[in-house]
Write a structure and sequence with these properties.
Radius of gyration: 42 Å
Strand order of the largest sheet: 3-4-2-1-5-6
Protein name: DNA mismatch repair protein MSH3
CATH topology of the largest domain: MutS, DNA mismatch repair protein, Chain A, domain 3
Number of strands: 26
Number of domains: 5
GO cellular component, one term: nucleus
Function: Component of the post-replicative DNA mismatch repair system (MMR).
Largest sheet: 6 strands, mixed
GO molecular function, one term: ATP-dependent DNA damage sensor activity
Subcellular location: Nucleus
Length: 1083
């Protein structure tokens, strides 16, 4: 049996012989031992040993690189290169070819029955990403997934960088049976497109918690113009700008639109800051772009970032075409909205908002309008362009009320991402983020990256945080929430405390879906009924709870209660608990059947009342009449079969079956459906016709109900602005609550801001690094900082390596950011002036992709600071000039600091290892102070006293006045575990260099002193020398011209000896001077 089985299996793998040999062998039989059967060779070829040999001789072919789409820069699959005239396609395959020709840069998922199938190269790509099996079926490779896993697999493909399209059947079996194309395939069409930026707002797969999660997914469109930059800005640094950039960023799932136009330099540092603050999911490049801009964007969207890039041409927008296209879209949207509102008799408050939005578009810069037009055109293919016209909240990239942190500041201060692994852990945002909702977390991120520059706005936030923090303390100490005194005639009500209500609302919202994205999905008409109900219930609950605070002051005649004092809190609570929002939410909820929504029953979803949804009512009535007609057919069947007790039955979802014994004779036109051993179940012709009519009525009801649901969601567009304002108010309350929680948990203090007309100053007592203070707790060493524009406004900090210099200057900058965000700060006290910018130059890095060396990065950051800082800025510089030679580095660092002090007069914290820079203190007396990070040193018992490598250094991390004597680099070398022989050799070399330098300095000083002394002696000798020969005779001294010449030669030799740096020549001059001096002594 085993041998026969082997023969059967081997037939599938044996090589096929020619027909001629096969026929000849069949006609003339041969003995079996002459030629072995082919099965043995086939069996041996699949042994592991031979497979290894074959694989070594014939290495597998390397797979072809995926083709690039003509519209994108991503590896997008393209249709197969096989021509249609060479192969015969099935009807389904013909549909696939047509769809792929229409959408060449889209990975298509095609609905076929209960599966979504991939075809061709799409199948191969999906198999690699999803880990599914792809196989050949007819003419194409194919792979499939079940329909109920669409959400999961679309997210995985989108996160891999693909543009995914879902193709669904446009007709059902019932409709197709009554249509003209009964024999053809089901009609199919592209129903949805998905990318990273549009996923959360899209239908079927959006609104989930996995995948992109709660992070922002901005689509950023960038255009530039390098033609007229010189006309825009002139001056000493005017040549530093070589391009004008226009940027529009859209968060489609929240309706947030950011726009701006600005000048940028060759290295595009301004554009880099925008990208770091927004963290876009997609980049839309408006071609043509300058090479440097495109290079920077492509470097940002590298393989590690997983940012999708797509290109779009803007040639058609030359000469005002961009503004015309945007205005036409706004006008069309406005007319559609107006007509819909008139049909539904709605009072829409945002018609004025629509006009103001058009006015805002008219005032936008030209490049920003071009970027906006490209963005709208891009969103049209997804059907999401309405958000740009009717529901978007536009804001500028930079304004007078906010500080824009540069890319260097965000990176080097670790505001959003740490420098070790790029995660959020250990950053300023991480320690400040105590929000309870996803949309609150997104808003806090924007607050942290855009601190306020207006003293009144900062004080308003601080007042709100203080009041919440105080209410937290009073709530914890109180024993009861409310009490009621019935004995008094005047009713005294102690309302539920503010913190209790606020925390309960935020906790409940934290367990609810992302209502900010939820209302936007409702606006896009992509929300599911269950999602709609969850969002409306969350908004309704929050509003009703906040209404208990009676902020409006109406419920006050016989009521005495503690009211809120913060104007910001009052405004936010009034917005979130607006009666209009609560009333509309309740009205919308009353229209939807909650049980049907939970069960996904679209047919019974809408509650019909007051003449609403008349088409749904007619369709339901048609279905009901079809059911009644079908049920009435049982009487006809009873008469026809002569069975009074005959009833319809249902089996496995098949209804209206007539079950009869197996030997029972029925009319020939009855259709047998199924059977058992003893019974057979039939459908009569009339029942079949009635079932067909019922199915058609149900299909019509489904279409009508879907249209009614879409119309219902479209009606919500009239209320979107009010709901959006309420959700933004809830997000702001969550951020203020998070800042209050931070201040209570960490014992932070409230900063005090001086008036704007006072000099710029920073006074911090016992300041701490907010991140390290959280990690080290009580072990962190605090430091004071005192800077004043009219006194000392620059600190030069020196000290040993790893002594805490960088930590000190970072903590000052982070405290300034936290204070202007509206947060309490880690210090004993803080008195600050509002800063208009915080600029940093720290660390050493290069960018090989963009051709930037370490030193070029340093100078680029320094140049950016010198161009942009003002007298109200804080500048922190850490070891500028270390990327080049010592002389060049000292010179550049000195000149940079000199420029900051003389021309900018800003607050400066300057860390350096160059003691020479501290000499600038003599030029700017009273404005510059020298400090160092203190330490203690002790020598080992067995080591020589002059060996620096044997010194034990204890870092005290306290900033004290003075310049540090040493940097103790050898201690860092020991910590880095350099070989001891290497460290010893370095110590000897350092000692020689220091001795040489010190001796050179001593020689120069000694020569200088001797020269001064000799000059004095020469002058004295000339004064005491007799003026005539007669005086010599009177003093009994022999005078001659030779004596005067000898003295002159003596002083000249001494002078040459002190000025010449060559020791040999100096020695010769001194030797000659000595001989002259001996002769003079003898005389």
């Amino acid at each position: 049996m085993g041998k026969q089985k082997q023969q059967v299996i081997s037939r599938f793998f044996a090589p096929k012989s020619n027909q001629t040999t096969a026929s000849s062998s069949a006609s003339s039989p041969r003995p079996p031992q002459q030629t072995p059967p082919p099965k043995i060779a086939a069996t041996v070829s699949f042994s592991p040993a031979k497979r290894k040999v074959v694989s070594s001789l014939f290495p597998p072919k390397t797979p072809k690189k995926p083709k690039l789409s003509p519209h994108t820069l991503n590896p997008i699959p393209t249709p197969s290169s096989q021509t249609t005239h060479n192969k015969k396609y099935t009807p389904l395959e013909q549909q696939v070819v047509e769809l792929k020709t229409k959408y060449p840069d889209v990975l298509l998922m095609i609905e076929v029955g209960y599966k979504f199938r991939f075809f061709g190269e799409d199948a191969e790509m999906a198999a690699k990403v999803l880990g599914i099996y792809a196989h050949l079926d007819h003419n194409f490779m194919t792979a499939s997934i079940p329909t109920f896993r669409l959400n999961v697999h679309v997210r995985r493909l989108v996160n891999a960088g693909f543009k995914v399209g879902v193709v669904k059947q446009t007709e059902t079996a019932a409709i197709k049976a009554h249509g003209p194309g009964k024999a053809g395939p089901f009609g199919r069409g592209l129903s949805a497109l998905y990318t990273k930026a549009t996923l959360e707002a899209a239908e079927d797969v959006g609104g989930g918690e996995d995948g992109c999660g709660g992070e922002s997914n901005y689509l950023v469109c960038v255009v530039d113009d390098d033609g007229n930059v010189g006309k825009i800005r002139n001056g000493v640094f005017g040549d530093g700008f070589d391009v004008r950039l226009g940027v529009v960023a859209v968060e489609i799932s929240t309706g947030d639109v950011v726009y701006g136009e600005f000048n940028d330099g060759f290295l595009r540092s301004g554009l880099e800051a925008v990208l770091l603050s927004l963290s876009p999911a997609e980049l839309l490049l408006g071609q043509p772009l300058s090479k440097q801009t495109e290079k920077m964007l492509l470097a940002y969207a590298g393989p590690a970032s997983n940012v999708r890039v797509e290109c779009a041409s803007r040639d058609c927008f030359i000469g005002g075409g961009a503004l015309a296209e945007v205005m036409s879209l706004y006008e069309n949207m406005g007319e559609d909205t107006l007509s819909n509102n008139e049909d539904q008799n709605m009072d829409v408050p945002e018609q004025g908002n629509h006009r103001s939005a058009i006015e805002g578009i008219m005032n936008m810069p030209d490049l920003a309008v071009q970027a906006l037009a490209l963005t709208i055109r891009h969103l049209k293919q997804f059907g999401l362009e309405r958000i740009m016209c009717l529901g978007a909240s536009f804001r500028s990239l930079s304004g007078s009320m906010e500080m824009t942190l540069s890319a260097n500041t965000l990176q080097q201060l670790e505001v959003l991402r740490n420098n070790s692994n790029g995660s959020e852990y250990g950053t300023l945002l991480h320690i400040m983020n105590h929000t309870l909702t996803i949309y609150g977390s997104r808003l806090l991120r924007r607050w942290v990256t855009h601190p306020l520059c207006d003293r009144n706005l900062i004080s308003a936030r601080l007042d709100a945080v203080s009041e919440i923090a105080e209410s937290m303390g009073s709530y914890r100490t109180s024993e009861s929430v409310g009490q009621h005194d019935e004995k008094n005639s005047d009713v005294t009500i102690v309302e539920p405390q503010f913190y209790y209500i606020l925390s309960s609302v935020l906790t409940s919202l934290g367990r609810s879906p992302d209502i900010q994205r939820g209302i936007t999905r409702i606006f896009h008409r992509t929300a599911t009924p269950s999602e709609f109900i969850a969002v409306m219930q969350a908004i309704l609950y929050a509003g009703k709870q906040l209404q208990q605070l009676h902020i409006d002051g109406e419920y006050r005649e016989k009521v005495t209660s503690k009211t809120l004092h913060s104007a910001l809190l009052k405004r936010l609570i009034l917005t979130a608990s607006s009666p209009a929002v609560i009333g509309k939410a309740a009205k919308l909820l009353s229209t939807v059947n909650k049980e049907a929504a939970d069960q996904g029953d679209l047919l019974n979803l809408m509650i019909i009342s007051n003449g609403q949804f008349s088409e749904v009512a007619r369709a339901r009535k048609a279905v009901q009449s079809a059911k009644e007609e079908l049920d009435s057919l049982i009487n006809m069947c009873r008469k026809q079969l002569g069975m009074r007790n005959l009833e319809f039955m249902s089996v496995s979802g098949i209804t209206h079956l007539i079950e009869l014994p197996a030997n029972f004779k029925v009319p020939l036109n009855w259709a047998k459906v199924n059977s058992t051993k003893k019974t057979i179940r039939y459908h009569s012709p009339e029942v079949l016709t009635a079932l067909d009519q019922l199915a058609l009525a149900n299909e019509e009801l489904t279409i009508v109900c879907r249209a009614a649901w879409d119309s219902f969601l479209k009606e919500f567009g009239g209320y979107y602005a009010e709901f959006q304002a309420a959700v933004q108010a809830l997000a702001a309350l969550d951020c203020l609550h998070a800042l209050a929680t931070l201040s209570r948990n960490k014992n932070f203090v409230r900063p005090v801001f001086v008036d704007d007309h006072e000099p710029v100053q920073i006074h911090i007592c016992s300041g701490r690094h907010p991140v390290l203070d959280t990690i080290l707790l009580d072990n962190f060493v605090p430091n004071d900082t005192n800077l004043h524009a009219e006194r000392e406004y620059c600190q030069i900090i020196t000290g040993p390596n790893m002594g805490g210099k960088s930590c000190y200057i970072r903590q000052v900058a982070l405290i300034g950011i936290m204070a202007q965000v509206g947060s309490f700060v880690p210090a004993s006290s803080a008195e600050l002036h509002v800063l208009d910018g915080i600029y940093t130059r720290m660390g050493a890095s290069d960018s090989i992709q963009q051709g930037r060396s370490t030193f070029l990065e340093e100078l680029n950051e320094a140049s950016y600071i010198l161009r942009n800082c003002t007298a109200q800025s804080l500048v922190i510089v850490d070891e500028l000039g270390r990327g080049t030679s010592t002389h060049d580095g000292v010179a550049i660092a000195y000149a940079t600091l000199d420029y900051l002090l003389e021309h900018k007069k800003c607050m400066v914290l300057f860390v350096t290892h160059y003691p020479k820079i501290a000499d600038i203190k003599t030029k700017f007396t009273g404005s510059v102070g020298t400090y160092h990070v203190s330490y203690l040193t002790s020598h080992k018992v067995m080591g020589p006293m002059d060996s620096k490598s044997d010194q034990d250094v204890t870092y005290l991390y306290k900033v004290v006045p003075g310049v540090s004597e040493s940097s103790f680099g050898f201690k860092v070398a020991q910590l880095a575990q350099l070989p001891p022989s290497c460290i010893s050799r370095a110590t000897v070399i350092a000692a020689k260099l220091e001795a040489e330098v010190s001796s050179r300095v001593q020689n120069r000083s000694a020569k200088r002193d001797l020269l001064v002394k000799l000059s004095d002696q020469e002058q004295e000798a000339q004064e005491n020398m007799p003026v005539s020969p007669e005086s010599f005779y009177l003093g009994r001294v022999e005078a001659s011209e030779d004596l005067i010449s000898a003295y002159r030669d003596l002083f000249l030799n001494l002078k040459f000896a002190t000025h010449d740096d060559n020791p040999a020549k100096s020695f010769q001059f001194l030797k000659h001077a000595r001989s002259i001096a001996k002769e003079l002594i003898i005389r």
